[in-house]
Amino acid sequence: MKRREFIALLGGAAVWPLAGRAQQPEQTRRIAALMALAADDPDGPPRFTAFLQGLQELGWVEGRNVRIEPRWAAGAADRFRTDAAELVAFVPNVILANGTPAVAALQQLTRTIPIVFVNVIDPVGAGFVPSLARPGGNTTGFTLFEYSISSKWIETLKQIAPHIKRVGVLRDSTIASGIGQFAVIQAVAPSFGVELIPVGVSDPGEIERAVAAFARDSNGGLIVTLSTLAVVHRDLIIALAARHGLPAVYGGRLFATGGGLMSYGPDLVEPYRRAASYVDRVLKGEKPADLPVQAPTKYELVINLKTARALGLEMPAKLLVLADEVIE
Fold it and tell me: Whole-angstrom Cα distance, residue 160 to residue 231?
């Protein structure tokens, strides 16, 4: 074989494996998701869809280069544990975790699979990360809000119902964020001249009995702090507030759009889009330990005028001007 022919043949052979590699399908990565709400909860799919859209914008397409395995725990403690075990067994490259109970269940099972959380109020207090700037370990994500926002709820409640002397605070006392939110409200309550009564949200029976007992005395109002259980039981809480004629301020927009009087809190959907960017970075080789926990970038004031009229309340003009959304 002539030298020129040999070089040409060798060059062609070098191209073959490259061409073969170019025709290989993309490596499929695995993403698991542990969601706090039920699959049929109207507020659940929009959040998950925002996450999927965020992934797609970054080039991750279900069925092409990524497989996504979701679970919907519906706020039930046993479901969180069972679903977490199934997802860890799925051996994903990264897990999206919605809420404090989801992260807690997952961390009990794995300290190696990367976890990106959304809508967790106090990841440091819950023991998920040692600090926001340096998460360390396998977990990072996006907080729901800062505790200081809790003081705004009591301030706003007094603005819309100045006659209130007693405030029932619905919170989950089994999680650090439930204790923290109540502590902030408790610290500022004397300056507003109100007495606080804690109300647990562990199950529907407890909520109904406690709110009914609270409503027996006059001049009362409610503050519903943010937690997975409050969101899961929101229809009951909103109905009880209406039944007993109690003005109430809630920590999330979905309460006001569901018939609650007013809400002030973070956008609960946006963090899912932002979480997609962290999942993308993890899939590309970055470690959760090096990705700082981020705070919300958007808060919303939503007022339900229909509910205000039903309670015989006149909404202050300055609040209406500040509102991001007014429901007629």
Answer: 23
